[in-house]
Design a protein that fits this description.
This protein is mostly beta strands. The protein has no helices and eleven strands.
Length: 120
C-alpha cells in the first residue's frame, strides 16, 4: 500500500524558516510530479510548488524567491524549504505525488498534512 508521510511542520516567528519532508512508501514503480499544497481554514487547497521527476520546478507567485522545492528520487522524498516566512503562509501543507505502483496502477496520492503556523 502506497503512503505519503509528511514531517517538519510547526510554529515559527515571521522571518524564520522551516523545512518540510514527504516520503513515499510502499510498492512503487516510479514517481512523476511531486508537489506541495497549502490549505488555510475555510479555503480551497492551493498549489504552492511542484517538481517534475527531472527536477523542473514551478512556484506560486506568493512564494517565489522564498520557498524551494527539491526531491531525492532514490529516497522517494520531496522537500519544501521555506524561508522568510510570513503570517499569511500559515496553513496545513499537504504533499501530493503522481505515483505508478509496481502493479501498474497510476494515481495521485496525498499526505496526511502538516500544520505550519507563522506568528507575527
Amino acid at each position: 500500500q502506497v503512503q505519503l508521510v509528511e514531517s517538519g511542520g510547526g510554529l515559527v516567528q515571521a522571518g524564520g524558516s522551516l523545512r518540510l519532508s514527504c516520503a513515499a512508501t510502499g510498492t512503487i514503480f516510479n514517481i512523476e510530479d511531486m508537489a506541495w499544497y497549502c490549505q488555510a481554514p475555510g479555503q480551497q487547497r492551493e498549489l504552492v510548488a511542484v517538481i517534475t521527476s527531472g527536477g523542473v520546478t514551478n512556484y506560486a507567485d506568493s512564494v517565489k524567491g522564498r520557498f524551494t522545492i527539491s526531491r531525492d528520487n532514490a529516497a522517494k522524498t520531496v522537500y519544501l524549504q521555506m524561508n522568510s516566512l510570513k503570517p499569511e503562509d500559515t496553513c496545513v501543507y499537504y504533499c501530493n505525488a503522481d505515483i505508478r505502483e509496481s502493479g501498474g496502477i497510476r494515481r495521485f496520492y496525498w499526505g496526511q498534512g502538516t500544520m505550519v503556523t507563522v506568528s507575527s
